[in-house]
Protein 1
Amino acid sequence: MLRTLIVDDEPLARQEMRRLLSAHPDLEIVGEAETAAEAVSAIERLHPQLVFLDIDLGFGNGFDVLAALPEPPVVVFVTAYAEYAVEAFAVDAVDYLLKPVDPARLAESLTRVRRQLAVAESARNGATVIELKTPKRSLLVPPDEIVALRAEDDFTRVFVADQSSVLIWRTLGHFESRLPSPPFQRLSRSLIINRDRLKDIESVSRSATRIRLEGLVEPLLLGRTAATRLRDVLANEGRPVSP
């Protein structure tokens, strides 16, 4: 069960969140809090894994709560104010829900929460994870869920399986030094792929090759040099290579 705390200064809002969360039987609501001080006390006493946290709490706010905790739990902000989203993700909130909360959007948020908790647990057990930190959010991702990485000026766009890509203010070389090779293969100055996720290779012209990778909807286009390098690597591994 996912131990959950609801923090909101409006009783009706807490009641509505309870109603919405009742559709998710793997959640256990261990308590509620109305003020920032009550929230800090409840978190220290109840040790929830997940907190649905309002921003405007009358006396104090949700950011005060997180600042008072040395190791805050996973947080999803729930608020009527869209303008705090950047600040919320800057403190590593997993998600940001606007009131009135849409049930489908809540389900999506809980999927993110469960995944983040699972990755964090793997990291505590010694598994390798890669932190993808942006101005809006931080993701902990197992290397095998990274499909490809592409340099974009001083940034790197990281393609994570079945998720939106993430633009990170790090060079491609930074990731190349941290990712295992194999399966990660640098094909050019601007592209690294996870060879374990390669599905097929298709020549579209003398100078262009299209590759499809598991976890990406759209294929990637390779130039002649990158395609040749990929074919050479696969041939050396004894893997079949399409013409």
Protein 2
Amino acid sequence: MAGALDRIVVADFSRVLAGPYATMLMADLGAEVVKIERPGTGDDTRSWGPPYVDDHRGALMATYFASVNRNKSSVALDLSTDAGRDAAREIVARADVVIENFRSGTMERLGLGYDDLVALKPDLIYCAITGFGRDAGAAIPGYDLLIQAMSGLMSITGEPDGPPVKVGVAVVDVLTGVHAMAGILAALRHRDRTGEGQRIDLDLFSVALASMSNQTTAHLAAGVVPSAMGSRHPSIVPYEVLPTADRPLALAVGNDTQFRRLVETLAVPDLADDDRFRTNSDRVAHHEALVDLLLPALAEHGADHWFDALTAAGVPAGPINDMAEAVAFARTVDIEPTVDLPDGATPTVRNPIGMSRTPATYRTPPPSLGDTSGSDRSRP
């Protein structure tokens, strides 16, 4: 079965995470992705380990690289040479999409910038990803940790009396990859209608600000400067992690009906009619008092007991799983989190986009450097 993006060719000059995540999602949906890498070392993340896994070709591969590079081929090109740039242009000449995340100005200095390549292929879609934009922030390296720090994300992450904390994955890179794919798909749709290509610009800093949605808007619209609250929510109570008899439990009580069901299940039903807790706004104003009354009830049983009881009552709640527990739990709710790749390669996490007629496919493992065998959907 042809994928939704069958016959779309992507010349992928990106490396590390944001760009490669976007192009992997596209490759899963049928696009031919040609990954252009430095000779000798390739993508930086090839060496970002441990952990490493056997790539089943007689070498070790960092799991970081493996996580975002399936279904691609690899071409090693030295873009500092005429021969390397000429080879890159040959790939672009048959491509629909170019994506790159070099420092601003690098592709232009190589003669591979948007103006150069659109002269070669007028309907080209060119997606450039930077850390802090193409102008005054161009000199600042665009690493996810810096973005989390400077965007304010770390200032709202962690415990109130602790140091700022980064999210446990390069979340801004991942979100930027999703935004990049959305922009590319929109541009392809525009090209289908008009025949016109276009340039797409994304910077991680803007994605971080946009992705903090309610927190950013609270500042812009109400002048609030949010701060770290641990697992608490600034506008919903109880919406946080609380201790039980054995391990912590996440409670996400989003409305008054759910709150009544919560306290009834915890055998403290009078709290629903307490003037301090009748509405969500009341509960936000009296957060500490409410938590003090919930803790003894939660201490009667463990997290798994409360998960079962509260779920049955229609109250959003769940234990804090580690990665192994999360993968195991997925299967208990008929979500298969992994898929097998060909050639006995290490299992990979499943593409979360479910499509009834053109589902994601998993055709080839992440390529070794210069391995062109990953392209199995090239144009005739």
Protein 3
Amino acid sequence: MTDRAAEVRFKPQDLLLALGGALILDTYEDPLPTRVFLDVLGSLGVSGDATRSVLTRLTERGLLTRHQDGRVASYGLTDTSRRLLRDGRERVRAAEPFHQVSSDWTLLSFSLPETRRDVRNRLRSRLTWAGFGCLRDGLWVAPGRVDLDRVVAVGAEVDELQVDGFLASPAPGTDVARYVRRAWDVDALRWEHEEFLRRWERPVPRESDPLAMFVLLGAHWIRLLRVDPVLPERYLGEDWPGRRSAAVYRSASEALEARAGTAFAALVEDARARR
């Protein structure tokens, strides 16, 4: 079953990483034939060329290993990708991923030469995943206490990277809500939750492809976790949909996971038998 939402909303890399974290990590230690990835992403409307391209890119970035056995290429997770996927899985499986328990805020400033845009882009991506919003160029803020060592490790090899971090509490009279809306587009965050709910709150049809749907669900959930910084609810207005989103994800995941795992195991067995 092809779901057109996968083509519109999610890059092949998003789908591949969702697959890796949900069904490959800690289950398949040996590399998997290319055919496995072509079949899974193909069921979501991704072309074979696009799948091969993202496999090559992730290999070049050190997130996959490539092995050749005759005419059959296989890909496996690296230590780096396993670490990243395990870190991500903590948030994916969190009971209350959108509930902020801390009253503190983390401030971070960094500077990099313009020539290191590659590191800048990776660092910005990690900051966003960790819940940071940008107040102005080089100054970021996140709700709660953030482990900065894990965030900035992406640029640790760059001598020119300068990072300063602080824990802070708002001074009396500070309009925190104004700063929240300055650093984050709260209306866009609400829309992301509502879009997730529109897509997954209704029961998953029994006749649908459980593997394709499970990977798509995972990619959509990771997207939501990435864009939502887990802000204190008192700054978000009434009826914030975070708790509903978490409940809907758990329900949809429970409905699909076992069937998806069985389908994926059969796909792997078939691809290995063809070698």
